[in-house]
Design brief:
35% helix, binds S-adenosylmethionine, alpha/beta, nine-stranded mixed beta sheet, Rossmann fold, 8 helices
Amino acid sequence: MSSPDQDRSGILRVFTSRRETRAFYDKISDFYDLLSERSEGPVRRAGIEMLAPRNGERILEIGCGTGHSVVDLAAAVGPEGRVLAIDLSEGMLARSAARVVEANLSDRVRFACADAVQLPLAASTVDAVFMSFTLELFDTPEIPRVLEECKRVLTLAGRIGVVGMSKEGPGGVILEAYEWSHRHFPNFVDCRPIFVSRALETAGFRVVEKKIAEMWVPVEIVVGLPDEQRSLALAARLATDHPERGNSAPHLHFPLFPSSNTAFRKNCSVVHSGPAPPR
Ligand SMILES: C[S@@+](CC[C@H](N)C(=O)[O-])C[C@H]1O[C@@H](n2cnc3c(N)ncnc32)[C@H](O)[C@@H]1O
């Protein structure tokens, strides 16, 4: 049975506003790694391994945080490839950009301060989308919107890799304690476990690889492909219903990257494009 703070499948709702989310991540950006890297790092790296980024690919990372995966993805795509990393928090983007500069990979990476529900990219422009510990931050009705956006920007031959806290697997007392914390302190424990592969399938991805890893809560590591038929139908519907969201939209055109409008650090920039993220 569902209660007002959970959906029908038992996933807790998220009532945090964008403003609160941004402020929270700006505030913790300096010590985010101290809090999370030890537990999340190995699982996130397993996600990148499963996504298997290749030389020359154009990859979008959503919710790049402090940039560990940006560096791994940028190294994997090589000088001919491109990585666009987006995040809602400029504090996180600053951390990420510094890490990329330090790794000497700025030539192939760009950043954008953007909201995942409205990606600043033209349709069919990326070979892969990656996100870790980010999809579970979105409220239940927003998850399909984010995944639909991922499908829009992916090429038909593209793929998506998602690492996220999961309600699948053994669960147990720690998971319950975590959900309790989310319920009672939603501004500090902003995410909550979801059904990751089920969300991808519902959004029209075919899950081709999936692993449940153990962190202190179960974590799903999933790779999905856009279902071709549905992608074609979506493309046709988008062209009819939202002609402004096709390739002529004022989005970033991957992999050219327009010149940035905010000087950031040497060779790295935060690109503000498209409409401002909703508050
Ligand atoms: C839990 S952190 C994970 C960071 C990184 N992916 C990792 O694995 O270390 C979630 C990140 O998603 C970002 N984020 C939250 N809401 C977002 C949104 N609507 N659009 C884009 N990024 C968002 C946060 O600012 C934060 O950097």
